[in-house]
Design goal:
The chain is built from 6 helices and 17 strands. The chain has helices at residues 60-69, 92-96, 103-112, 135-145, 162-171, 308-313; strands at 13-16, 25-29, 34-41, 44-49, 73-81, 116-125, 128-129, 153-155, 180-184, 194-199, 203-214, 222-228, 257-258, 264-269, 272-273, 276-277, 282-286. The strands form 4 sheets. Strands 3, 4, 5, 6, 7 and 8 form a 6-stranded mixed sheet that branches. Strands 11, 12, 13, 14 and 17 form a 5-stranded antiparallel sheet that branches. A 4-stranded mixed sheet has the order 1-10-9-2.
Length: 322
């Protein structure tokens, strides 16, 4: 592989902010998937990840899509996502299952739950390195590079209109998206630097403390609490030993020490993935005024449904201006 930008490359990152910023920003939907940088040099394709480890072997259908839908020589930053069986929401659990050691299983899942690549930045095209160019210029070149895409590779929507972005923030969550990204229009591409801004939903829930994990420094300290909603336990729900190892790190013990379901804690979270918090919930305060049996799923805010297919189709090419 001999490109103007060669792997591995650490992707440019975003820092969280409390609200949608004012100023000269380009706003994009924040996709909830695997961050990946695609490198193509003719028949050579590599799909990098946020930790710079290749993801190529896990997504053979995307390797084929890159060869069919992208230019011969390019480096494109984006996100791998998987729609649910109805094509209406993102399915992060299905995406996680794609990381499997068995080649036969990888091939099967490539046909059962095929991935899509949401492209949102251009690092190189042909013999040109775009990393030192402003984002507005990179975006324009990306649109041209994706002229032949659309079945498995998609161009993410953008806008400079803060009002439009505000609408996306509330509407697109119903399709499983994760908030907004704000990119400085004149910013260059800076690998591994938090120069973008991310705006995510923030909610709270009251949960019963079902157990805790011991801190790595010793058994006399608590590392984390294990929250639980008071509801009829389903077979797939976690128990102290049911999901004791991580798919990403087989040596990491995820078991916890169970407690009597008596204490209630308020936690902060962004959104749900099925019956679970999508990301680690943050402690807010103890709730001695709440009864454990009152902490049910009924308290959780449900986003208004929104069809993922409408977002994948996208608007006409070009940054939408206010």
């Amino acid at each position: 592989m001999d490109l103007p930008v060669n792997p591995p490359v650490a992707p440019m990152l975003a820092k969280p902010v409390d609200g949608i910023p004012d100023g000269d920003y380009v706003f994009e939907p924040k996709w909830d998937g695997f961050r990946s940088i695609v490198f193509r040099d003719g028949d050579e394709v590599e799909i990098g990840s946020r930790n710079e480890r290749p993801m190529t072997r896990y997504f053979p259908e995307l390797v084929a899509a890159v060869k069919a839908e992208l230019p011969e020589r390019c480096v494109i930053d984006g996100e791998i996502v998987i729609p649910d069986s109805e094509g209406r929401r993102l399915d992060f659990e299905a995406l996680q299952l794609r990381i499997h050691p068995a080649a036969s299983r990888v091939e099967l899942l490539a046909t059962q739950t095929p991935g899509h690549f949401m492209a949102f930045d251009l690092l190189a095209l042909d013999d040109t390195d775009y990393m030192e160019r402003p984002f507005a210029e990179r975006r324009a070149a990306l649109e041209g590079a994706l002229a032949g895409a659309g079945k498995s590779i998609h161009l993410t929507q953008t806008t400079t209109d803060r009002e439009v972005a505000t609408g996306w923030f509330s509407q697109f969550e119903g399709a499983g998206l994760d908030g907004l990204i704000a990119k400085p229009a004149d910013g260059i591409y800076e690998p591994d630097k938090r120069v973008m801004k991310k705006i995510k939903h923030e909610r709270t829930a009251d949960c019963v403390v079902a157990g805790y994990r011991v801190h790595k420094s010793g058994e006399d300290r608590i590392g984390s609490l294990h929250p639980w909603n008071w509801a009829e336990q389903q077979p797939a729900q976690r128990t102290p030993r049911a999901a004791m190892f991580s798919r990403w790190n087989a040596s990491k013990d995820l078991s916890f020490i169970p407690l009597r379901p008596e204490r209630v804690v308020e936690v902060r979270y962004d959104h749900m993935e099925g019956p679970r918090f999508r990301h680690t919930a943050q402690f807010v305060r103890w709730r001695p005024d709440r009864e454990p049996h009152s902490c049910t799923y009924a308290q959780l805010e449900e986003p208004v449904s929104f069809d993922l297919a409408e977002i994948l189709r996208g608007p006409a090419r070009g940054i939408e201006h206010g």
